[in-house]
Specification:
The protein is α+β, with helices and mostly antiparallel strands. Helices cover 14% and strands 28% of the residues. The strands form three sheets. Strands 4-5-6 form a three-stranded antiparallel β-sheet. It has a two-stranded antiparallel ribbon with strand order 1-7. A hairpin with a 4-residue loop joins strand 4 and strand 5. The longest helix is centred in the N-terminal third of the chain and has 13 residues. This is Spore coat protein Z. Keywords: Capsid protein, Virion.
Length: 149
């Protein structure tokens, strides 16, 4: 079963993450998934003068619960936080992905209990990355492409 037009690894989530990573690296993507609009926006197919650089993603574990990542900024080792939203940094051929946690700079809720508790109106990169096995996920939701830098 294939979910995207460019990859066919047998893992829909891995294939979508590869396509997003490619699009964010300014590579052409032939996505035919539910994330197609976000990727097209990122590539400038819908608005040529955009400064969009990120497709925020929300991942779901195989138990159908949203995946929440945790991290600690290098500059403040005592200030751990959580996020449900990520920017794909890379994904390898073994389906290991590096994801950067996204959050609002002024979001003071360090540990939201659900994705709807986390403010998404102005998501930004955090510099905090985690490595995940994308075979552990069964669903992906793409938010509209944004400028996160």
């Amino acid at each position: 079963m294939t979910c995207g037009g460019k990859y066919d690894s047998g893992s829909c989530v891995a294939d979508i993450l590869r396509e997003i990573a490619d699009a964010q690296s300014d590579l052409l993507s032939d996505c035919t998934t539910s994330c197609e609009q976000s990727i097209a926006d990122l590539l400038g197919d819908t608005s040529p003068s955009s400064n969009l650089d990120t497709v925020p993603v929300l991942l779901y574990c195989k138990d159908c619960k949203p995946f929440k990542g945790y991290g600690v900024p290098v500059e403040d080792l005592g200030d751990a936080f959580a996020s449900f939203y990520f920017r794909v940094k890379s994904i390898d051929d073994k389906n290991c992905a590096v994801l950067e946690l996204l959050r609002e700079e002024e979001d003071h809720k360090k540990d939201p209990h659900s994705p709807v508790e986390q403010d998404t109106s102005d998501l930004e990169v955090t510099g905090v990355c985690i490595t995940v096995d994308v075979d552990c996920f069964c669903h992906i939701t793409c938010l509209p492409a944004i400028s996160a830098f």
